[in-house]
Amino acid sequence: MALVVQKYGGSSVESAERIRRVAERIVETKKAGNDVVVVVSAMGDTTDELLDLAEQVCPVPPARELDMLLTSGERISNALVAMAIHSLGAEARSFTGSQAGVITTSAHGNAKIIDVTPGRVRAALDKGSIVLVAGFQGVSQDSKDVTTLGRGGSDTTAVALAAALNADVCEIYSDVDGVYTADPRIVPNAQKLAYVSFEEMLEMAACGAKVLGLRCVEYARRYHVKVHVRSSYTDNEGTYVYGSMEDIPVEEAILTGVAHDRSEAKVTVVGLPDSPGYAAKVFRAVADADINIDMVLQNISKIDTGKTDITFTLPKTDGPRAVEQLTKLQGVIGFSNIVYDDHIGKVSLVGAGMKSHPGVTATFCEALAEAGVNIDLISTSEIRISVLCRDTELDHAVKALHEAFGLGGDEEVVVHAGTGR
Amino acid sequence: MALVVQKYGGSSVESAERIRRVAERIVETKKAGNDVVVVVSAMGDTTDELLDLAEQVCPVPPARELDMLLTSGERISNALVAMAIHSLGAEARSFTGSQAGVITTSAHGNAKIIDVTPGRVRAALDKGSIVLVAGFQGVSQDSKDVTTLGRGGSDTTAVALAAALNADVCEIYSDVDGVYTADPRIVPNAQKLAYVSFEEMLEMAACGAKVLGLRCVEYARRYHVKVHVRSSYTDNEGTYVYGSMEDIPVEEAILTGVAHDRSEAKVTVVGLPDSPGYAAKVFRAVADADINIDMVLQNISKIDTGKTDITFTLPKTDGPRAVEQLTKLQGVIGFSNIVYDDHIGKVSLVGAGMKSHPGVTATFCEALAEAGVNIDLISTSEIRISVLCRDTELDHAVKALHEAFGLGGDEEVVVHAGTGR
């Protein structure tokens, strides 16, 4: 008997009506002869509403209590889906992350899954029940406190359960139809991919694609979980995310798609002494503030030949804090000034195919030049090329690259107001 | 160091603003040098809203899932109160009923507390924390499922914790100021009682007084928990519920108050054979439908001297079901017909004093007669006299009895729109 894990995002369960439709799909999957485990996010905007309520009673809510509060959202939606399944005549039981055996670190608000021991889930499945598991949460191994897993946590819960239960597939349902060669709202003739390897999906996610989070793809890759990204509004097949790009024959390796990202800002530390150790001081200062850095560039300084400029990108939300931190250490580190730019965009081409196709970088740059997009910074990996440009030019850049590499299909995509939730 | 348990009802925490006020009171209690444990109900009408959502997805929600759903309400309010306390500079941790060691039967929706093992609560108190415990819930000893305790469950949680932790007092906060000699909305010169014994409070609760539920008073009595009923809107002392009426010296025993109840209906089984066993069949039929009976009266039948009529009262909500059940068994049991009356009211006089004061029953009936209230049925216990009358005459009956037994004070009570929540 096949075991299917399904995950439904917040907008898929945002009302009693949507909940009933999701229940129908779940029961169909069960009737087709599968064991079914379902992970459900909180309804609609519940998490944001609870956060808002928290801030009304406490400006900086303590992390442990915030996790106790927010996990109510998933508890509510899972119990309701279980009830809706029951009203369709099937058996269903809901469990919290803790009850389902999701064991995590103690980092409230951003806990990592250490282990999944799904004994109660398996027992309920063996009794013929459909099982609901609240996503986005687990229990801390040390303190036995309830924890939440951070952004994309429900996807990670679903993949982790699929791994622990040896599921045949992990279906991630949202309001988008699958993974596309580019965002269909920018490129109407973008094509839905039938299949993407783990490494390529990791790059797409790292480069701004929102349909699956980095953490859940990495977990799927490590435990070889087949992921199927599909829409909860249609019966169409979506995109399978599975397998290693190493397994793709060289002749078949293709370019997967164009991703874009508006969420980053750029910091330039100007006039740093061009000697060993100074770059390290800059990056240590930023790391100590718990900020992740993305792209990095080091240049001869414009202002002084004995100096160097270091440029890096980071999430916009962390920008002001990074600038503040570095400014505090200006005297200690010894640079001239900091330039902060939050009007940048990042566009990336991803694909296992570029390893074996020389000239991709050249075509890439030519396409952007022809579109009048100025390249600010380039960064590459084995299967990815990313550049920074002005955020106002980002859409042009995406279209130009998509066209230049022949990624478009003949039909225009029907675009729902998809957010990938 | 004294240990105080406080319970706050739904209207006391119905908004962010009310939550902050409750937090202030809690922190004051802690600063006065006490260990503090707080039980909080769900905010405002949350429980009813969740029930409504449940019925939208499933007409008859499965009991286990309903408990998973409803317990979210208390989880939310307790986490928010803990956060509000934190913002006032004090330490607080919230626990679910399960985490706090509230062990129950498996009867979802109406579970009984079997035991309370408050290890984690005690540990948190010893570390100097204020502890929040979600009311109305526990965990089933057998299935390890989450359970809810039925109506008044948060009061029961508070008293049970007070017993297990050997608390000095259990303060029950609502929007009413204490226990009165009668409902101040009917009798403006009703007086607040400084003290009521357990047995008297049990009778008051059984006779319709809503401020404390039967189950929590019985629990308090069994474990000798001192209960203090007070308002969360003022600093006034309320009513202490404590001690046995046996301990009250005969000369000091008084009449406690007048309770009234509009929630019952009356069923008369007409023309039952007047032989052994038939009354038993009637009561067995009603008991099998899981319906509780209150007052009972058996009369010579009006229709036939060899027959008898049996009359009993029950909650209005169970009325139609009881009639249906008896009607089904009419042939088997062999009665003529059933009369159903849901326009009755019950008025009761309660007080340890009546044991030692002959003539109370006479005064009682005279007062009602003078007020033009017709007595339909009388029932008495050692410390209570109850009668049924028309529901339209109930207020007159309450006023008349309160006056006749000199229970009124000189001042008129300032009445909040109190519901006792």
From TrEMBL, chains A, B:
GO terms for molecular function: aspartate kinase activity; ATP binding. It catalyses: L-aspartate + ATP = 4-phospho-L-aspartate + ADP. Its EC number is 2.7.2.4. Pfam families: AA_kinase (PF00696), ACT_9 (PF22468). ATP binds at K7, Y8, G9, G10, Y180, R185, K210, V211. InterPro entries: AceGlu_kinase-like_sf (IPR036393), ACT-like_dom_sf (IPR045865), ACT_Aspartokinase (IPR054352), ACT_dom (IPR002912), AKii-LysC-BS (IPR041740), Asp/Glu/Uridylate_kinase (IPR001048), Asp_kin_monofn (IPR005260), Asp_kinase (IPR001341). NCBIfam families: asp_kin_monofn (TIGR00656), asp_kinases (TIGR00657), PRK06635.1-1 (NF005153), PRK06635.1-2 (NF005154), PRK06635.1-4 (NF005155). Keywords: Amino-acid biosynthesis, ATP-binding, Diaminopimelate biosynthesis, Kinase, Lysine biosynthesis, Nucleotide-binding, Repeat, Transferase. The keyword Metal-binding does not apply. Catalyzes the phosphorylation of the beta-carboxyl group of aspartic acid with ATP to yield 4-phospho-L-aspartate, which is involved in the branched biosynthetic pathway leading to the biosynthesis of amino acids lysine, threonine, isoleucine and methionine. Pathway: Amino-acid biosynthesis; L-lysine biosynthesis via DAP pathway; (S)-tetrahydrodipicolinate from L-aspartate: step 1/4; Amino-acid biosynthesis; L-methionine biosynthesis via de novo pathway; L-homoserine from L-aspartate: step 1/3; Amino-acid biosynthesis; L-threonine biosynthesis; L-threonine from L-aspartate: step 1/5. One of its GO terms (biological process) is threonine biosynthetic process. This is Aspartokinase. One of its GO terms (cellular component) is cytosol. Belongs to the aspartokinase family. It comes from the Bacteria. It comes from Antrihabitans stalactiti. Residues 267-343, 349-421 form the ACT domain. The keyword Iron does not apply. Substrate binds at T47, E74. It is an enzyme of class 2 (transferase).
